[in-house]
């Protein structure tokens, strides 16, 4: 594998983790959302990755395959005085688990940082190789 392929592999991982962080941010922003006029509350989104071939050198990268909505039912709270209550007096909240999303955010952030470090290390190695020729 060429040293330059490292940048392609890490770059694809950084892009995928950036999309993952965006999905987590969206989920966290809507963690306290309640059902709207249509009776549907916000549903947590999950991101799924796929391995892809990168060039002809046998290296592989990653890309976002799909972003799906969770099927977990939202939390229902009995509050008949709320303007968002349904006919039975229940308010449906989103199905976002903030603790799970925070763990997901930390994991994505660490993966992002690790791929930046891989790129910096590869850059340093290439610069040192060039300096040897002087």
UniProtKB/TrEMBL annotation:
GO BP: any one term: bacterial-type flagellum-dependent swarming motility
Subcellular location(s) per record: Bacterial flagellum basal body
Main location: other
Any one Pfam family match given in the protein's UniProt record, by short name: Flg_bb_rod
Recorded superkingdom: Bacteria
Disordered: annotated segments: 69-90
Cellular component, GO, one term: bacterial-type flagellum basal body, rod
Keywords (A to Z) from UniProt: Bacterial flagellum, Cell projection, Cilium, Flagellum
Residues of the Flagellar basal body rod protein N-terminal domain: 7-36
Entries under InterPro entries matching the protein: Flag_bb_rod_N (IPR001444), Flg_bb/hook_C_dom (IPR010930), FlgC (IPR006299)
Record-annotated Flagellar basal-body/hook protein C-terminal domain positions: 87-132
The family this protein is said to belong to: Belongs to the flagella basal body rod proteins family.
Description of how the protein assembles with itself and partners: The basal body constitutes a major portion of the flagellar organelle and consists of four rings (L,P,S, and M) mounted on a central rod. The rod consists of about 26 subunits of FlgG in the distal portion, and FlgB, FlgC and FlgF are thought to build up the proximal portion of the rod with about 6 subunits each.
Record's protein name: Flagellar basal-body rod protein FlgC
Organism from which the protein derives: Hydrogenophaga borbori
